[in-house]
Amino acid sequence: MSAVKDSTVSKELQSLLDGKNYLQVPKTNSFVKGVVIGIGKNEVFIDIPDFRPGIVRGKEFLENPEEYRKLKVGDQVEAMVLELENENGFVELSMRFANEHRAWESINTLLRSGDQTAVKITGANKGGLLFSMHSVNGFIPVSQLSAEHYPKVGGGETVKILEKLRSLVGQMLDVKIIDANLADKKLIGSEKAFLESKQRALVSGYKPGQIVEGEVSALTDFGAFIKFDNVEGLIHISEIAWQRIDRPSDILVVGQKVKAEIVSIDGSKMYLSLRRLTEDPWKNINDKYTVGQVVKGKVIKTNPFGLFVELDKDIHGLAHISELSEKTVTSPEEIAKPGDTLEFKILSIEPEFHRLGLSIKALTAPATPEVVGEPVAAVEEKK
Questions:
Q1: How many Cα atoms within 13 Å fall on the side-chain side of residue 65?
Q2: Which of the residues 10, 55, 84, 377 has the least number of beta carbons within 10 Å of its own beta carbon?
Q3: To 5 degrees, how large is the angle CA 111–CA 115–CA 121?
Q4: 279-285: long-range pairs with CB below 8 Å, 24+
């Protein structure tokens, strides 16, 4: 009988030594759960089971007293241990650090899974939108917004961009977490990434060369967005017309119905073209214009390096500053201004590059003797 009793005692002792049924003393920076047993003016007292009471006080309490005043005696809470025993014998605790830890655990779970989540937009600046997730402040850069919410503002005017972004404050947006770093307190969300898989599925039903019909949904400096069948594609400014244009709004207006050709598809992005649905006017340009021909043209724009000239609605040329006069010209506007109609001589035609060179200076330059295939020196020798 004695042997059986000794054996039982030995098992209980071994169980204690193994850590079973043994009091686990909290460590600094560890997390503990407890029950609120008292709420003072500037402190909260928490009972930690099988250990001494803890206290939340000081800066943390004063920075957000309303949050702690919502607590009631008997509430279950979690806190981080800052100090095992303070000057009054209490365990010094922080509920804020515990809440922050739980928040970042949830955020990192979302980052790893790639799942979407809905966030409320709390503010905006010129770089993007602000949101809050589990009391952690996050940011959605403008570049990570969907095409629907992207501030498509011509001229890149900061005030208008900010105005557009502020209109989203208070709304709920679906995002994916693409970067989360507790050390840097950095939380980045992306609406674009969330929509990408959905958009990719829609876009996969189309292929390059296909003709689509839609509506101009927005105009920017770099192009026009066309919406059709719940898909939005971009027509780059260079694909709007064969001639050179300064702004997409020179040709298109929001709400206009257009047909476009799909040029390429890159993931969830689709690129379109308007000009490819019309014949390239440069294809047969040699039937209309020849090198050496004198033509009339309207100056449509001046640049530091020359005049842009419209010969007809499809063909534009450039008169370089060096070809404007025999004299030195410091600014093309010394010779002509937009709207002026002048005579020019065609110096070169490059259909493959859609380039045509013009000259005013060549109109008055003396003729140079030339034999095809022979240099001028050889011509002089024959005389």
A1: 7
A2: 377
A3: 80
A4: 280/242, 281/242, 281/243, 281/314, 281/315, 282/242, 282/315, 282/351, 282/354, 283/351, 285/315, 285/349, 285/351, 285/356
Q: What is the DSSP letter of 253?
A: -
pLDDT (0 to 100) of residue 5: 43
Which pair of structure tokens corresponds to residue 41?
Answer: 């003016």
Q: Under a CB-based contact definition with an 8 Å cutoff, are residues 22 and 16 in contact?
A: yes
* pLDDT, average across residues 85-104: 87
CA distance 122 to 126: 14
Domains of the chain: 34-100 (2.40.50.140), 114-196 (2.40.50.140), 204-277 (2.40.50.140), 285-364 (2.40.50.140)
Give residue-wise pLDDT tens across range 52-65: 899 998 777 777 76
Six-digit token string for 342? 């002048």
Count of other CB atoms within 10 angstroms of residue 254: 13
